[in-house]
UniProtKB/TrEMBL annotation:
GO biological process: rhamnose catabolic process
Classification via InterPro entries: Dimeric_a/b-barrel, Rham/fucose_mutarotase
SUPFAM superfamilies, sorted: Dimeric alpha+beta barrel
Alphabetized UniProt keyword annotations: Isomerase
Species this chain originates from: Blautia massiliensis
Molecular function (Gene Ontology), one example: L-rhamnose mutarotase activity
UniProt xrefs under Pfam families: rhaM
Source organism superkingdom: Bacteria
EC number: 5.1.3.32
Protein name in the entry: L-rhamnose mutarotase
Length: 215
């Protein structure tokens, strides 16, 4: 399975138009996804940012005819946003913990977060998360994170996490302290767009909202 992600910024005053047009093209878009074996497709929003995630089989190739269909659909909504990622190319994968991917999504909850890197901090962010991957080694994480990836483009960070709710446990004081230490350190290299650490910083940010989803 291959994982892909894209991101865009909605133009000022165009969010209602973006949502409306997305609804209008949704039947055509989902038909395109089904024809081309694209699964677990979702679109998320916070502030004026849009993040999209999807999966397909290894080596799946989109035909020239279907590329034209995608281009036509994009054109219909294209005047509502500017690209953050490069169209047709994945963002940079900054972290992954793919673990055991659950086929049944009924007991899965999602976490999707957004941050903005401080100038010149992309490599430091990558290095810190490479360290987390190295600590885990080659072992498969049994959960509760089952499909966790963090992507970057245009100075932004976008995290996507599928969490097995049957494996979640109450956070211990020690784990809470470790989280606070990590997030405090991260504040030196990035600023939050979503509200994931408002409980710690006492700031107020919007939550991420899943605008659309197609399995």
């Amino acid at each position: 399975m291959e994982r892909h992600a894209f991101a865009m910024k909605v133009k000022e005053g165009k969010m209602n138009d973006y949502r409306k047009t997305l609804g209008e093209i949704w039947p055509e878009l989902t038909a395109y996804l089904d024809r081309n074996g694209i699964h677990n497709f979702s679109i998320w929003n916070a502030a004026d940012l849009i993040f999209g995630y999807y999966e397909n089989a290894d080596g799946e190739v989109i035909s020239p005819e279907e590329e034209k269909v995608k281009a036509a659909l994009t054109e219909k909504i294209g005047d509502t946003f500017t690209w953050i990622s490069t169209p047709g190319k994945d963002m940079r994968l900054m972290y992954h913990n793919f673990g055991v991917v659950r086929e049944n999504k009924e007991l899965i909850r999602h976490r999707m977060f957004m941050t903005k890197l401080k100038d010149g901090c992309e490599e430091e962010y990558k290095a810190r998360h490479d360290g987390l991957v190295a600590q885990r080694g080659e072992t498969i994480d049994p959960g509760p994170d089952s499909n966790f990836s963090i992507w970057s483009a245009g100075g932004y960070i976008f995290g996507y996490d599928e969490i097995d709710t049957t494996m979640e446990v109450e956070e211990t004081p020690e784990a809470r302290e470790a989280t606070i230490a990590w997030e405090t350190r991260q504040l030196g290299i990035m600023d939050w767009i979503t509200n994931d650490v408002d409980w710690m910083t006492k700031e107020v940010h919007p939550s991420s909202v899943r605008l659309a989803w197609h399995n």
